[in-house]
Amino acid sequence: MNTVSFADLKLAPQILKALDEAGYSTPTPIQAQAIPVVLSGEDLMAGAQTGTGKTAAFSLPLLQQLLPHASASTSPAKHPVRALILVPTRELAVQVEESVKMYAKYTNLRSLVVYGGVDIKTQTPHLKNGVEILVATPGRLLDHIEQKTVLLNQVQMLVLDEADRMLDMGFMPALKRILALLPRRRQSLMFSATFSNEIKKLSEDFLIYPSLIEVARSNATSDNIKQKVYLVASEDKHALLAKLLKGDDAKQVIVFTKTKLTASRLTRQLQREGIAADAIHGDRSQLERQQTLEAFKQGSVSVLIATDVAARGLDIDHLPMVINYEIPHAAEDYVHRIGRTGRAGAKGTALSLVSPEEERYLVEIEKLIKTTIEKEQASVQHAPRGEQRAPRESREQRQPYHKPSPSKPAHDPWFDQPYVPKVTEPVPSTSKPDINSVKPKAQIPALFRRPG
Ligand code: AMP
């Protein structure tokens, strides 16, 4: 049982005031463990998933370390970049910076977020005004470095957030280029949901005698989240999903698919059945993604269909349910997906629809999370022909149907386009489409413990 308070962690009054306003009363386990380490100036390697409070675990002590440099001056020279927070996705970047801003509310420290997919020129003037804390995706940061719109020679703190994701997304070369530009004398913190050999290697390269912390994996996979598997034939998944979504506890649900194509098809099928569903994809335009996300947060969209890339880092308050329409082939993705629910102590439900072909991936997942998930053989009642089952694609294109979001065309041609990454923005992992191209068996992470 964790009984320390934020004040016990010796955080400054300005920071405590902001936490109080945010309604945080007690530090989460990762916060209780990480904050003293970061305040001591040591490097840190922390194993924690989204939903454990890891953002505050690094942001709060980071702000405290920078407080002596806080300045009310308007001169950009007084506000060099002193802390760099690198994250894998735009959504996570936005969320992390929102949190930093909130915690820094009563300090004179400035923060800014830069990410790809939006006009770089809109970010430059803000950078030029000077910011102490810069949250960035690696690709866009490199663009700024090349355009000489950012200087990193005063960075004294570096955070690599969701480091395992960054590696999965192919950001290693970008990270190496960025890290080579930072002063050698700095404090570095690395957060990762999993500890693969690659992550250990990365930590050896970039951290100096780090303290190791891991918060219990059960945080995300057992205590707060009720997990259940429905064994169901592929062709019956849609009917089962529609039934589950009509249940009382399915008021706000993220449904995960493996591919963009399934996401877009499923969204159309559900919309046709009167369910307020919309899709969010890794490479829909930034504006579309934000609008869909906002509609979901506000409740006008109740079912968000997402691929792994799009969902990374999403932080929806009190999300009660996650459904895996297709289970991921990389077991770690399961942990990331279900970590969207049951956050910060709230209860959540994670349901997975598993067809016979997918059962071998379920075995890997259960091995990784060290839990046998409850299973039920689903019995699906089929509606009379033509009533509920989805019509084939060709019919669907001929027949108009009611959709909750009238602004969208019936068939978004975007979904048929291949994702074309920028040179500096690597291809997200879900664009590796199927089982034949799946990376080798997921590593079962070695659990690190902080000594003593
Ligand atoms: P994170 O793991 O950083 O994505 O945080 C997950 C959620 O928990 C966010 O919505 C945070 O605002 C919230 N949170 C973080 N720390 C605390 C805390 N100590 N008390 C209450 N909520 C928190």
Write a structural description.
This protein is α/β, with parallel strands linked by helices and 452 residues long. It folds into two domains: 7-214, Rossmann fold, CATH 3.40.50.300; 225-381, Rossmann fold. It has helices spanning 13-22, 29-39, 54-66, 90-103, 120-129, 138-146, 163-168, 172-180, 197-206, 218-221, 237-245, 260-272, 286-298, 308-311, 331-338, 359-369, 393-398; strands at residues 44-47, 83-86, 111-114, 133-136, 157-160, 187-192, 211-214, 225-231, 253-256, 277-280, 303-306, 321-324, 348-354, 374-377. Helix 13 links the parallel strand 10 (277-280) and strand 11 (303-306). Residues 385-452 have low confidence and may be disordered. The structure holds adenosine monophosphate. Adenosine monophosphate is lined by residues 24, 26-28, 31, 50-56, 315, 343-344. The site of adenosine monophosphate has 15 residues, from helix 3.
